[in-house]
Amino acid sequence: MQIIEGAGAWTPPASAATDWVEHLRVPDLSVGTYCIPAGGLDDQTPHSEDEIYVVTAGRARIVTPDGTAEVGPGSVIFVPAGEEHRFTEVTEDLALLVVFGPAYGSRRTDR
């Protein structure tokens, strides 16, 4: 067992528009926190792993090829590997607990 301190907690990005911190990595999954300040831009590109977001703080809109949805604390979002997605209209500092399966970057083909 491991308690993951600070996972999902809002942390203001140091110098970039967004902030990603990985808290746990094992071969089959990784867990981290992704933060976007109010008015910030989400510049991520599609990932090669399946992904679950849990909104722990803030409000925004998620945009995918299938549509858009308003998200806020308690929202749980599944994004399959390879799907374009972006958080827009971040109206309150957004903190997301993120779970990747398998671990983030482990399926990359550009290595």
Secondary structure: helix percent:
under 10%
Number of helices: 0
What's the domain count? 1
Mean of pLDDT: 93
CATH topology: Jelly Rolls
User: Could you give me the name of the CATH homologous superfamily?
Assistant: Jelly Rolls
State the CATH architecture: Sandwich
Cα distance spanning the termini? 32 Å
Number of strands: 6
Largest sheet: 6 strands, antiparallel
C-alpha geometry: globular
**CATH class bucket:** Mainly Beta
Key attributes of the depicted protein:
111 residues, mainly beta, Jelly Rolls, six-stranded antiparallel sheet, 6 strands, RmlC_Cupin_sf, RmlC-like_jellyroll
Fold blueprint:
Elements: E1 19-26, E2 29-36, E3 50-64, E4 67-71, E5 76-79, E6 86-101
Antiparallel strand pairs: 1-2, 2-6, 3-4, 3-5, 3-6
Protein name: Cupin domain-containing protein
Domain Cupin type-2: 34-100
Pfam families: Cupin_2
Descriptive overview:
The protein has about 110 residues and is an all-beta fold. The chain is about 0% helix and about 50% strand. The chain is built from no helices and 6 strands. About 20% of the residues are buried.
Summarize the structure.
This protein is mostly beta strands. 0% of the residues lie in helices and 50% in strands. The chain has one domain: Jelly Rolls (Sandwich).
